[in-house]
Design a protein that fits this description.
It is a single chain. The protein has 15 helices and 2 strands. A two-stranded parallel ribbon has the order 1-2. Helix 14 packs antiparallel against helix 15.
Length: 262
């Protein structure tokens, strides 16, 4: 699941300064962990610490409220007991990766993705976005071919994953699930390696940290993680995040150790 954190970190500097360069450097100066990493860690804590998702999401938000959260999520997180809103934002997708790694049964994982989503995002697109991430990870872990994964994900989410990258690059910024998850999945399924997938995702423009976060989550399941880049992004995340989040960060890294490649 550390692939999601690598993607977030590498995409962070391009969120508001989009690039279409397919050779973009990864993990260099100016990169940082953002709200995508914080919420990925919150999901991991909920799954491993027997906490409910709303409690974990609010606790982690309060530890790092100024790291890039959107205003609607911040309003929800700041009020204990507040009901979910009708957001279709990609926050549901960016935090879903741990479910795909820690739950092996496909149907059970989809139910868990729905549970994690609906505490804060009740729009059907938010549910679809989280399901795409979780289902994609599980199917790739099982060794399913990319084209078959895309077809299965269309059945699960209703999204189409055959995109025109040049058309996507002309779109305005879009932080919805429908406006970012399909291209993130496409990049993970199209590229020929983990780093190539992140570069392709970032080159699409838009909400670059979240698109790369989702791409990284799936690309980890397909390719494994480059050891050097993982170490670089771990160091960046340690420097970015409050110390209270470091134990969960280290756990995320440890759970991905077996997928590190040279």
């Amino acid at each position: 699941m550390f692939g999601a954190i690598i993607g977030d970190t590498c995409g962070s500097k391009y969120e508001w300064r989009n690039t279409h360069d397919p050779a973009v450097p990864l993990g260099d100066q100016g990169c940082q962990a953002t709200d995508d990493t914080v919420m990925t860690l919150a999901t991991l804590e909920a799954l491993t610490g027997n906490r409910d998702y709303a409690t974990s999401y609010r606790r982690f938000w309060r530890l790092s409220p100024d790291i890039g959260f959107g205003p609607r999520f911040a309003r929800w997180a700041s009020q204990d007991g507040a009901p979910a809103n009708d957001s279709c934002g990609n926050g549901s997708a960016m935090r879903a990766a741990p479910i795909g790694w820690l739950i092996d049964d496909f149907d059970a994982a989809l139910r868990e993705a729905d549970t994690a989503t609906l505490v804060s995002h009740q729009h059907p697109d938010a549910v679809a976005g989280a399901r795409a991430v979780v289902a994609g990870i599980i199917l790739l872990r099982q060794g399913m071919a990319p084209a078959a994964v895309a077809r299965r994900l269309t059945l699960v989410t209703g999204y189409e994953f055959a995109i025109d990258p040049q058309e996507v690059r002309r779109r305005p910024f879009d932080a919805t699930c429908a406006g970012s998850v399909p291209q993130a999945v496409w990049a993970a399924l199209t590229a020929d390696g983990f780093e190539a997938a992140l570069r392709l995702a970032i080159s699409l423009g838009g909400d670059s940290d979240t698109i790369a976060c989702v791409t990284g989550a799936l690309a980890e399941a397909r390719f494994g993680l480059p050891r050097s880049l993982a170490a670089t992004c771990l160091a960046i995340a340690r420097a970015t995040l409050p110390r209270e989040l470091h134990p969960t960060l280290e756990l995320a890294y440890d759970l991905s150790r077996s997928r590190l490649i040279d």
